[in-house]
Design brief:
The complex is a heterodimer of chains A (111) and B (116). With 111 residues, chain A is mostly beta strands. Chain A is 0% helix and 57% strand. Chain A has no helices and 11 strands. In chain B, the strands form 2 sheets. In chain B, strands 2, 4, 5, 6, 9, 10 and 11 form a 7-stranded mixed beta sheet that branches. The chains are: A mainly beta (111), B mainly beta (116). At the A-B interface, β4, β5, β9 and β10 of A face β5, β9 and β10 of B.
Amino acid sequence: KNEVEQSPQNLTAQEGEFITINCSYSVGISALHWLQQHPGGGIVSLFMLSSGKKKHGRLIATINIQEKHSSLHITASHPRDSAVYICAVPSYGGSQGNLIFGKGTKLSVKP
Amino acid sequence: GAGVSQSPSNKVTEKGKDVELRCDPISGHTALYWYRQSLGQGLEFLIYFQGNSAPDKSGLPSDRFSAERTGGSVSTLTIQRTQQEDSAVYLCASSAGTRGGNQPQHFGDGTRLSIL
């Protein structure tokens, strides 16, 4: 069964800083998900990626399938980026099984 | 509807009572998932539906938990004889494809369940 590790668990940054959140997993997968959970609890799917890099606004997600590692970057961070960021992968690798989730990275961006 | 809808948004009940939580997925989404998030904890898988069938119930914590889905749409999660450890946010998600990682999942806002 897949295992997911995220780092750091907590991250405090000043507005404008470049942010990196890391995710590693143990069993090869077909796609990895990055989710954002707002302080109010709502969860939004940010990216689903299986190779290379995806960009949406100031958010960039990369994945290295061989190294079983993904990163989420935020450029020019803003206080509204404050949230918990969660990565998730299929529980049995490939595309099989429900998603299992990392414990999340709590990001706080100070003005 | 435009997104996944869950009701109620908050539920407070006494220990020992039964509760029903409802999820309305995005129209046309065949896959539906229930998750639980306890205070300070990560997301925990409970059950998955493909259409009206539940091929994976492995995450249900005890036989007090059950779920059904009708018409390939609305799903209800029922907790019988609630215990204090059942207090959590219960989240529902739906996706267009089959189970697994190849389709984005769309989440509802959750039901915050508090057992007194």
